[in-house]
Amino acid sequence: MxxxxxxxxxERRSLxxxxxxxxxxxxxxxxxxxxxSDLYAMGWKPVVDAADFPGAGAGAGTxxxxxxxxxxxxxxxxxxxxxxxxxxxxxxxxxxxxxxDWADAIVLxxxxxxxxxxxxxxxxLDRVLVQGFAFGxxxxxxxxxxxxxxxxVGKRALIVTSVGAREASFGPRGIHGHVDEVLFPLLHGTFWxxxxxxxxxxxxxxxxxxxxxxxxxxxxxxxxxxxxxxxxRPIAYRYENSADYDGELVLRPDLEPGRTGLGVxxxxxxxxxxPAPAAxxxxxxxxxx
Length: 289
Fold this sequence. Notes:
CATH class of the largest domain: Alpha Beta
GO molecular function: NAD(P)H dehydrogenase (quinone) activity
Protein name: NAD(P)H-dependent oxidoreductase
Largest sheet: 6 strands, parallel
Distance between the termini: 29 Å
Family: Belongs to the NAD(P)H dehydrogenase (quinone) family.
CATH architecture of the largest domain: 3-Layer(aba) Sandwich
Structural class: alpha/beta
Number of domains: 2
Region (Disordered): 262-289
Keywords: Oxidoreductase
Number of helices: 8
Low-confidence stretches: 58-70, 269-285
């Protein structure tokens, strides 16, 4: 397989840095081709602005109001789609899109900060997965391609992340919320929305207190998960362009009757994979190595 590994941690000597080294070694030993986007090392610009659309003229705008469609104001969606179509996006964005086109699978690797990825990775998603490339496409019948279809259809996608808290607190009744639901915006709202098959996430718990043994155990578990990357069963999310949703994109009342919440968007939510074993016992959700 061809794999793009997107790494978002400011310290390569961290637990996450050592996990990436172990993961890359495993993939190399198995004969996979890997490219790495180390966002901090690259000095990745995390914000969308007019500089993303060089040579686009006045229509791309230089103002701060990104919502208006008139004059020289920047309309982000339109500018991104036009820039992608005309190959007028900034070179750093085009380079990352080329990596995605090349890849069969994408790994997003980051510490969970305030229940989401670091700003630099959010900015990578904002700037790279532009309209016309990853989403905003139509099928032959004029329907919008999303949630199981889109620009990344046919690719597999895996989250590798760490949290400071212990496993139970990210379980089904844990105070932080179930980890699959905490990561739902990425798993469902980014991967599945653009058509990529979202794999169950790999999570290291208690990361900020992990000793050498815990780190070695986490690395061994990650290597085992990566060995299954080509074959592991993705999360069974429902397709938008199916009979499961009505015209308002609401789940039909005869499906999962009486239930609400994020779990209803899985075909068989009871089959959700168990969280990975804890690496340590204590910590806060925002403090992750």
